[in-house]
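Below is one protein, fold included:
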Amino acid sequence: MPAAAAYRTPGVYVEWLDANPQHIEVSRTDVAGFVGIAERGPLHVATKIESARQFLTTFGDPVAQAYLAYAVEGFFSNGGRTCWVVRVADPKQAVAARVRLTHSGCKPFVLAAASPGSWGNGIVIEAVWGDERITALIATEGDRPPQRIELDPESGQPSTPRRTGEKTLLGVPESVLPELMPNVLVNASDDDPTLEKTSLGPERRQAQMTDGADGVAMLRAEHFSGDADGKLGWGIDALARVDGVSFVAVPDLFSADPFARRDGFKGFKAPVIRDAQIAILTSCTALGDRMAILDLPRTGPDVRAGPDAVLDYRGDLPNTSFGAVYHPWILVDDPLRIRDKVRAIPPSGHVAGMFARTDRLRGVHKPPANEVLEGVWDLTETLDDAAHGTLNERSINAIRAVAGRGVLVLGARTLDPDLHWRYVNIRRLFAMIEEALDEQMQWLTFEPNNPRLWREIDRAVRGFLERLYGAGMLDGATSEDAYFVRCDETTNPPSATDDGRVTCEMGIQPPYPAEFVVVRIGITRSGIHIEEKGAQDA
């Protein structure tokens, strides 16, 4: 390459550069996904949440018939930073509160709450008067900022809603937008015969929205685990459309406290919950980039289920490395004070936060165990060493209160008894590696299939694994002990290259106790395929 000083005279200069400087980056692994019942918010749509406050402004306060708000609060209090939340309800039964208004002889119009739910029944619409007519409406809901709705001077119809004192949304950071979104939407249609027309005038200056329904009375397990063909995008299927989620939790599959049930929701029986969890595990396995953090039935002195119920329930779950279960339930502060100052909830949300904290501070290769669960007062059941050992043998991760240390997660096993995939950190490490390879090696498709391409693949993969080894994510005294990469004529014979296939094999030594696990990357004209093989199959 000519030096800069060489460009002093007119002419043509040729420089040979690397046309494909490939550098594979480590994917983020601390993003959670939640599915559950909420007070408000969009239905069956994954919404990105980056703080506990943002969850409250988007999905509302905790509700008596659900655990979702407690789980998300536990996620952030344990170190989580980003999650995606899907609110579930029966779309046919969930209705937004609304009111049909008219004034001064104007054509009626409808104002509706921004999302379905009985929460909208508390929205009060107040008329703002000018000299002789109503010029605007003020929508007020609880202690939230009021929303001003301007009326057109000639037609008397609503214009774009905005918050009082708010000039513009331009320039507002995206993370703040959910806190500024209006509570009331204008519905120009007036074809709902069930709505009684409410006239605002000098004698009546206020109106209240009505007929909002939560849509949880007729909830089915499929609203959480997704419909049979996935076309409706319910629950976990909505999360499946989000790239980058590393673990999911669905705490509301278990019925809420019988003292807290509202709107006719009576929860699900154990076989229904089990089938829904199997569907969630199937979804995670098919995607290959996330794990399911599953809850088990509640046990303890105030419920009928004994310790054996947990073991029996675990026996009905499949053996898979894409899921892990935790026991027992935890006691957390309850702002609703349903029965006491604390409430028993499934532990999955707090465990998800612990996953995220461990990933950020140590890395995905570190087993998420021997870690404190913050924000937990106590447990619904006290485990001794004998019970802990029994749970461990059945791949159930125990949560125990340890004197002087707090409430700890003392297990990091998946549902797979196979030694290669027995531990949560091993599965999640491979999921991260495969996700990075799949996303960042798409450039391989349609490249000329020759030794130069093989060397480029070898260099990119080897460099990626060397960075993982340097970060302590792979075991071995040397790089040769930690991994190997093969992409040459031995993995790409003429019979394969003639068909347009390129194959790269790499062996990885994850942290103890797993042995080498071989990953085969196959590239065809239609895309990239990744296959895992145990050491005994290599």
